[in-house]
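Problem: given the chain below (107 residues), write out its structure.
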Amino acid sequence: MNDQKGAGLMLPATPAAKVLIGDRGYDSNPFREGLAARAITACIPSKKNRKQPIPHDPKLYRKRYPVEVMFGRFKDWRRIATRHDRCPRTFFGAITLAAIFIFWLER
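Solution.
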């Protein structure tokens, strides 16, 4: 299943937001319509094969990069990427420890 199908299923459970920044994997008419129904502006670049490209704000789209880098750094920690801890408290503790190491001690 691609990203936009899974995201479409999660759309009713998303918190209120003004803008959703997503990559090309989320570019589909049903997903965009679901966002519009919730009054959320989509900042999603059009797929290369779309006949009529939908414009997006490139400056706003650049704000997605730091979030992607953060998730990439967390995936370097095998324990977090594979979700070894089944207890939510232990898993959150592992995420907290990784965040302290990645974003505070590495500076």
